[in-house]
Fold each of these.
Amino acid sequence: MIYLCAISNISSGSCSEDCSFCTQSARYHVDIEKYKQKSIEQIVEEAKAARKNRALGFCLVTAGKGMTPSKLEYVTTAARAVKEAVPELNIIACNGTASYEDMIALKEAGIRSYNHNLEASENYYKDICSTHEWKERYKTCLNAKKAGLKLISGGIFGMGESEEDRVSMINSLKELQPVSITINFFHPNSALPLKTNPLNIEESLKLINNVKNELSNSRIMVAGGRERMFGKRWTEIFDHGANSIVIGDYLTTSGESPSKDLAVIESLGLEIAEKCNGQ
């Protein structure tokens, strides 16, 4: 059973943080589309298209370190509009660090899940971000769970981290027990401080397998960097434990056409999930 998720980048770019892997940081002047708020009407149309492409998850993503009162109002307004238009979607919020009270407000607006990635191990995180601490990320994950939201969390591989760092991050995820693990592979950009991703396909497949073995009760979603890392071999992720992907575009990079991904999945004889089944 393959679970499909789509992303809506509802507030793009101009983030003040210095995460060296992120094209949305204003510090690196990456050539991406920037806007403060996408219209509610456009978000709803994207939600309808996502469901037409058989996505069950629809993630409302905002740039910036964390939640603010104005951002909370915007996200909850968007969530209510999506819920009314496409009630069968599992609405996911991804709005950075957030308090327990923020999480309660999101839940009351019809949001079911919160996505907040650890990104890296606690030890390595300070090497890729100096403007906030890893502990803030971990606490946000705890806040989501405390509020009764389904937690989605994971990280990025291929940022120069050591094997020990990968083990440490996976152990932290084991403590959190997210319902879904997001596995991203770093997508280099010449404007970023991080220039390369040293991983190859075999190493990346092994990492997916390791995560699945360590978190066997969690859904394993391969998200950002899938097309770039695996190319035509991307379907091998399913043989190594993945059972979920993001379809369509990502935050600032383009993805494969959803129709092509759907055709490939169906050609493999894999069933596409039509219900969330508690996750």
Amino acid sequence: MIFSENLYWGRHAREHKKYILDNLRKRHFQPGAYVIIAAKAPNLYEIYNQAMFLNPKMNTENVEILGIGYGYKDAVECVTTMLMQRKDVIC
């Protein structure tokens, strides 16, 4: 996993930054953590439960994580923030 320099945090995830990052780096199971990555066109982002990144059959070494939410609702709010801050998206 590669963490973006401009990593976005959900409101709840922000409260547990150190704990979440430590567990993601060590590849420990972390219930409730969701990662946001870039999607293939025409979509912009995809939200995955962190447990999917523990699957040895998935190649996640070079996947850039753009945002982290703690709980699905927090991840959706994080994506909303990411979309609102994009300059190339017309609202």
